[in-house]
Inverse folding.
């Protein structure tokens, strides 16, 4: 009978010596066998489930989040009054916790589009990639005209045409970090396995020259790549006609692709959180972390990003790094970000705010762990720049801002063919050509916005386990990879969410 | 008979002591009465038309572009071998050249939409303004649904519905320069007289909160303003229905507006150059400058922008400033830009490049003058921040990058209800809800891209005068203000060119 009552508290990892209150717990209430709350515990706050000596580590997410500043008894509220940061922060202990997960014997499969590059797409779109905002309107005109003429009707294996339009590409330096970042982003979209063909469309006089993309051999597969500029083509009307002809050729080539069985090892999952709430870190994010570990065990790749969100927990990634060089790249990123924000008069301000503390977060580690929880427990196989091609399997890190569209844009450019997005407040977005699922962190969000949400991790608050939800996410990802439409995809999201990371002065 | 032959050279201002070769001039060829070229003069280069003593100023555009470093005779080629910078650069001489232009006795009129604010629109659109990229897809869905249901058919005075979608609004600091710049931009679009009604659409959890726009009284006209967030509305589908209902109410209100006669003093012209070539500075830009002066004489407002493009010629604007305080704001902008570019590892690099020099540009002043030429000769009545509301008539300056969509976005936010865009390479773009004309700098561009170009200033190379072309631009602007569609407008440009200036770190 008691099994059907929703649990009062959640233990996030077997090694934890605290649990999280899933709602307010009255003083004296039984939390688990033989342990009762010694005081009232607010929702989202921590309760000790074993004795913790003064100076001993407090463990949540299986990770040290600080040290007890007083002796703590089972049933005690654990917060700022008895938990401090301890001395752990700057001990990177490179590769000290890179424990390989057991691979499955027979990886799961999905049905995808095998590309000549060896990558496998989960969709088969045509893309109109723009080098600059100044060719964006014409790219949309071309897509509109393709639809108006029903041009793709004769190519049933093509999923559609996606104009990739953005706000940058000129009014910027033609060299340096900002230029190289945009260059990688465009090159990465050009290579994404979810595109069966790419028309690259420029204005002609922009800083980001199509010629450079061609010269640097990033867009040189003749069968699936065409390019043109509006100025060379003789203006809007002439460009549209020329583009339509190119699209017809690309469609004929792309249409040859059919879905075939592929190992889950070909899945590259971009993980993201946005519009987070107090539940994200204890429901949706760790459930996604479980799915990420599953994917890694099946031979696939999962990408953690959003550097400002992991600030303060970087030593956990350095410890999980496959080797010291990989771990050092994490430290380098953190240092770059400290400089980037400082020179822009900002700061990497991720300390628990008064609101965070009211919600039960005590230390910066604990806060960042809620985001890192998406990354599960697998060793860190690689660290990549924003939009850098990911060339290793397993759990990897790609640098990016936390800003959702910008971070996902980098992940897609790096090669992601699936997106999993956790949210507590309710984000609605899509990232064509890559399908994404939305994972709700709480039951209220699921109830309010079910037509936008794919997975209800709010059920963890009423008795589902992280493992059950992690398994559900993994199975859904396999189906979506095989062609099932996610809710955002079915609604047509994803034509304005291409947001390359703009670094540097707009000139 | 000789009148019908295209001129060999162009004198840009009555005060000039040099003229510009419109094509290659052979040694000995007659340039004008009694003056022959002493050597071969390449196209675009300068020839003296009077004796210039060593140390005396060389005048082009009616402005000192440097000092003769040798004695120069009529017919001599004037370039790096006999022209230096002189000592003029840093003498701001505030307000020393603020000569008021003669106002016309009876200003020209157009037919526009008179707004309760006292401003007059040249169009009557409904806008869906988004606070963040994360509501951009839904804004497009709403606009699409309005079209699908033919909702605006019953409101004939409404020009259409414009989703204003962008890449920022979150992942940024909630205070400081970047935030305030975006805030002004959104507020300015909300106030632009070309919108008869605005639906502001947010996600809910973004940094750029709609509540702040409402609280700060920028969007508080109940009859023409509605707002909602996707999270509060209960997701995508619910938001679309709620938005449709709001649009219907806004359309009914906007439909009450009709075109009525309005003085040209209500025109606010954003001036822009993009994809410039060697002719821009001697044909399209000075012709637009002539039109700008005409507009000022008719009581209207013209806006020069693009600070990186005027770098080096800032003292010309300080001299034209109406008073010292106005002039000092120009100097402040320049200093801000030097810091902005330096902290982003860039520079205000506007020195004539080797290519510029081959094209005939000798000094940085001369290069920047080609851009400043758009601003005519009127006194500088005001200097504004990017997207700051323009509250003075006459010729004004609004700070912005040179990057076209970003600069025009600021001008529209500042209140522009017309755009004039000069181009040599051929830019194609639009800026809904504000109509813009394209002005071609050379006959080849006109020939190649006439369906995209509204005015052929290339005709100046074959005998038309700057005054004739300036008058033509002014007359066309009056017609477009009254409802005539410009070529970009007729083609549907302008739904992706909203590019707010993103300043600061993406977090
Ligand atoms: Ca986040
Ligand atoms: Ca995010
Ligand atoms: Ca320019
Ligand atoms: Ca300097
Ligand atoms: Ca420009």
């Amino acid at each position: 009978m008691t099994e059907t009552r929703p649990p009062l508290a959640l233990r996030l990892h077997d090694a934890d010596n605290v649990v999280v209150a899933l709602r307010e717990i009255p003083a004296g209430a039984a939390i688990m066998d033989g342990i009762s709350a010694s005081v009232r515990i607010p929702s989202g706050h921590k309760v000790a489930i074993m004795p913790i000596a003064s100076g001993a580590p407090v463990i949540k997410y299986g990770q040290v989040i600080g040290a007890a500043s007083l002796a703590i008894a089972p049933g005690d509220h654990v917060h700022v009054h008895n938990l401090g940061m301890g001395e752990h922060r700057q001990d990177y202990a490179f590769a000290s916790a890179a424990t390989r997960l057991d691979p499955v014997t027979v990886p799961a499969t999905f049905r995808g589009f095998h590309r000549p590059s060896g990558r496998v797409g989960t969709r088969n779109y045509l893309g109109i990639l723009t080098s600059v905002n100044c060719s964006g309107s014409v790219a949309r005109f071309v897509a509109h005209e393709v639809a108006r003429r029903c041009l793709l009707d004769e190519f049933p294996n093509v999923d559609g045409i996606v104009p990739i339009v953005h706000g940058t590409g000129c009014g910027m330096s033609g060299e340096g970090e900002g230029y190289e970042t945009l260059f990688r982003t465009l090159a990465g979209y050009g290579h994404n396995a979810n595109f069966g063909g790419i028309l690259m469309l420029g204005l002609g006089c922009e800083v980001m020259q199509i010629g450079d993309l061609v010269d640097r051999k990033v867009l040189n597969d003749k069968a699936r790549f065409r390019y043109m500029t509006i100025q060379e083509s003789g203006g809007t009307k002439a460009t549209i006609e020329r583009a339509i002809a190119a699209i017809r050729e690309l469609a004929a080539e792309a249409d040859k692709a059919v879905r075939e069985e592929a190992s889950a090892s070909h899945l590259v999952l971009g993980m993201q959180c946005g519009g987070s709430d107090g539940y994200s870190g204890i429901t949706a994010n760790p459930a996604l972390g479980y799915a990420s570990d599953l994917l890694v065990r099946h031979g696939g790749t999962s990408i953690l990003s959003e550097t400002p969100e992991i600030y303060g927990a970087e030593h956990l990634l350095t410890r999980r790094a496959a080797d010291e060089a990989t771990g050092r790249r994490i430290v380098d990123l953190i240092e770059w970000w400290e400089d980037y924000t400082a020179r822009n008069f900002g700061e990497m301000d991720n300390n628990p705010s008064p609101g965070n503390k009211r919600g039960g977060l005590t230390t910066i580690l604990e806060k960042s762990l809620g985001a890192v929880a998406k990354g599960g427990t697998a060793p860190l196989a690689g660290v990549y720049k924003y939009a850098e091609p990911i060339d290793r399997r397993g759990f990897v890190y790609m640098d990016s801002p936390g800003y959702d569209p910008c971070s996902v844009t980098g992940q897609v450019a790096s090669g992601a063919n699936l997106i999993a997005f956790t949210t507590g407040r309710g984000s609605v977005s899509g990232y064509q050509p890559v399908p994404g699922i939305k994972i709700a962190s709480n039951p209220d969000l699921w109830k309010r916005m079910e037509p936008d949400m794919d997975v209800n991790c709010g059920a963890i608050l009423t008795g589902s386990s992280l493992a059950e939800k992690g398994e559900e996410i993994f199975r859904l990802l396999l189906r979506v990879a095989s062609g099932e439409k996610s809710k955002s995809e079915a609604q047509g999201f994803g034509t304005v969410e291409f947001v390359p990371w703009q670094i540097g002065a707009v000139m």
